[in-house]
Amino acid sequence: GMGALDLTRILGVCDSVFGTAVHTNPIGKVLKTHLINFPQLFTRSIILCFVAVAFVYLGVQVRNVLKSPELVVITPIDGTITSQPSVIVEGRSDKEVSVVINGEQVFITEEGLFKETVNIQPGLNVIKVTATKKHGRKAEVLRQIIGKTKLSIK
């Protein structure tokens, strides 16, 4: 992640870049004469702060775009055996993602919560929950549910 280490390295790089820029650039010279009232170090550290913040912010943004969305399926537990005709699939994801259960888009609350009833057939049922971000990053959780047939009395 972006730790304090990265920050110092970024600051170091920026410092050398800005340092040379101020000494070699005619614009830098103009800037320096205009800001003669300020100590040079002070203005430079302000600029560096802005740059560092921008770098860190961009880094976090890029990481968020590249990261898959969080997807937690609370119920049902994988491998559940049920004689019920349906199960409730409940979980949470990031807000602003699209959640699909077995091909059906489900409603997701502001907090990123979803709850949906899924029909269970006798035998093995695979419930596939997919969360997709706007930028196409996906997370997927599979739950296998065994549907038990009720014994019919002949």
Description:
With 154 residues, the chain is of the alpha+beta class. Helix content is 37%, strand content 32%. Strands 2-8-7-4-5 form a 5-stranded mixed β-sheet, with no helix packed on it. Strand 4 (98-101) and strand 5 form a beta hairpin. The mean pLDDT is 77.
Please specify the SSE layout and strand pairing.
Layout: H1 4-24, H2 26-34, H3 40-66, E1 71-75, E2 81-82, E3 86-93, E4 98-101, E5 104-106, E6 113-119, E7 123-132, E8 138-147
Parallel strand pairs: 2-8
Antiparallel strand pairs: 1-3, 3-6, 4-5, 4-7, 7-8
Helix pairs in contact: 1-2, 1-3
Write out the strand line-up for the largest beta sheet, numbering strands in chain order. 2-8-7-4-5
Q: Give the tally of β-strands.
A: 8
Major sheet: 5 strands, mixed
Low-confidence runs: none
- SS field, number of helical segments: 3
The SS-based structural class is alpha+beta
What overall geometry do the principal axes of the alpha carbons give? rod-shaped
**SSE string:** HHHEEEEEEEE
Distance between the termini: 64 Å
Question: Hey, roughly how much beta strand do the residues contain?
Answer: 25-35%
Mean pLDDT: 77
Rg, Å, rounded? 28 Å
Helix content: 25-40%
